[in-house]
Amino acid sequence: MIKHIVMWTLKDEAEGAGKAANAQKMKELLSALPPLIPVLRELEVGVDVFAASPACDVILYTAFDTRADLDAYQVHPEHQKVVAFVKQVVASRSVVDYEI
What we know:
Layout: E1 2-10, E2 13-14, E3 17-18, H1 19-31, E4 42-47, E5 58-64, H2 67-75, H3 77-89, E6 90-99
Antiparallel strand pairs: 1-5, 1-6, 2-3, 4-5
């Protein structure tokens, strides 16, 4: 199984909204993906509620059966719609993929 974890720090203001509103919109958009992308086995999205330091505003955990499934998810049109929004509101991004 492949685990894919992404952490984002958001811009204070983007797309006419503040950080908290954009984090919530990201969570909603990402949470809607599982029924649309069959290779996506697990998905969990969290928004930082404790103002951790160093800051990370949104975190995504996903799981896939294979690397090929992760690759298919990355280019899936529904995922790409979310990516288009995320790119507009994100200041920085960190990612890790690992196999168990």
